[in-house]
Amino acid sequence: MEKVPKVTVIVPVYNVEKYIKRCAKSLFEQTIDSLEILFIDDCGLDNSVEIIKETLKSYKNRNSLTRIINLPSNGGVASVRRQGIIEATGQYVIHCDGDDWVDLDLYERMYNKAIKENADVVICGLIDERINGNVVRDCYLSVNNGKEILKNWYKNTYHMSTCNKLVRRSIYVDNDILPWIGLNMWEDNGLFTRVFYYASRIVYLENAYYHYNRTNENAMTSVYGIKQVEQMIGIAEHLSEFFESMIDAKDFEKTKYAFQFLAKINLITDNYQNLKRYHNTFKEANIIIPEIDPFAFSNKGRFRYRMVRYHLAWLFVLMFKVKNWLH
To answer: CATH top-level class for 7-213?
Structure first.
């Protein structure tokens, strides 16, 4: 009888030939002895897959549990993560993007922490790897229960990245949690809000880091337009349905409104038609505006939030227009 891998790591691969060798080496050199590595090829147009195969030749010990899975068509990161979760066989599952990398003992330490504390989710810190220096982000927890985190998420937003969270695979399987196909922007919010709902015990591992490459200009989160905003709104709609279907839905009403508002505020740019859409989208969510965590926004986003909070969204649009004209 084959032994179940301790951890499965899911790696989206799409046009990352510049970075994938560093990523693959950091996975192949992990100190954990039982690691299933699933590279999910999303029909990329470069040599990423060939580089993975060539790199793997130097790590014979990883051959048996490493697979390259080719998707039939390009579906985006939601389809990739979905297929990875379906294919995973490990006790725990984590994601690692193809342009990033991890500390060499990360997965062993996260797994040991999970076993020692009987945790459903183990979280590590992030290091933003930038051209002009690194930024360390420790992701400390105020409480260890997923529902408690979600109840107060609107006033203390927690980072929902997929890549720094090791999850007991049964959380995904038993609760039928998979990314929603076609919704690639905010797919992490859609996934981990549901994971947290079912996670009884979430713990944090100190001094352990996932290295998030912020120098890749082709990354999906680097630039986005109206299509991505519409996907964010789609995620908020699905999460609203998810919360509303639960017997304790009332406990999460403000967090539901927070997701709705954080999605729709991105409609406010330099377009008065989109401003009209903002006003007509998730109207009930406006009650959360005075209570929402300002740190849910980037520095630029906080300015827009303040303008919206004080009923100056029209002025923000005008300022955005003027800025674009000047450039």
So the answer is: alpha beta
Residue pair 11/97 in contact (Cβ under 8 Å)? The answer is: yes
Give the sign of the dihedral formed by CA 198, CA 203, CA 207, CA 208: negative
Q: How many CB atoms lie within 10 A of CB 2?
A: 6
C-alpha 92/C-alpha 137 separation (Å) is: 23
Q: pLDDT for 208-227, tens place per residue? A: 999 999 887 665 454 578 99
Show the tokens assigned to 271.
């377009």
DSSP-based three-state secondary structure for 319 = helix
List the Cα angle 97/98/100 in 5-degree steps: 70
> Angle CA(74)–CA(41)–CA(222) in degrees, nearest 5?
70
* Residue (of 254, 259, 323) closest to 288 by Cα position: 254
| Residues 6 or more apart whose Cβ sits within 8 Å of residue 299 | none
What single-letter amino acid sits at 43?
A: C
Q: Mean pLDDT throughout 98-117?
A: 97
Model pLDDT for residues 9-64, shown as the tens digit of each residue: 999 999 999 999 999 999 999 999 999 999 999 999 999 999 999 999 999 999 99
Residues composing the chain: 327
- List CB contacts of 80: < 8 A, sequence separation 6 or more: 10, 12, 13, 14, 40, 42, 71
Task: Give whole-number Cα distances, 312 to 12, 176, 240, 309, in Å.
Answer: 40, 42, 27, 7
pLDDT tens digits for range 72-106: 999 999 999 999 999 999 999 999 999 999 999 99
Q: What is the mean pLDDT of the segment spanning 165-182?
A: 98
DSSP 273-311: HHHHHHHHSSGGGGGGTTTS-GGGS-HHHHHHHHHHHTT
Q: Where are the domains of the chain?
A: 7-213, 226-326
**145 neighbors 202 (Cβ within 8 angstroms):** yes
Neighbouring residues of 125: CB distance < 8 A, sequence distance ≥ 6: 136, 137, 138, 139, 164, 206, 207, 208, 209, 210
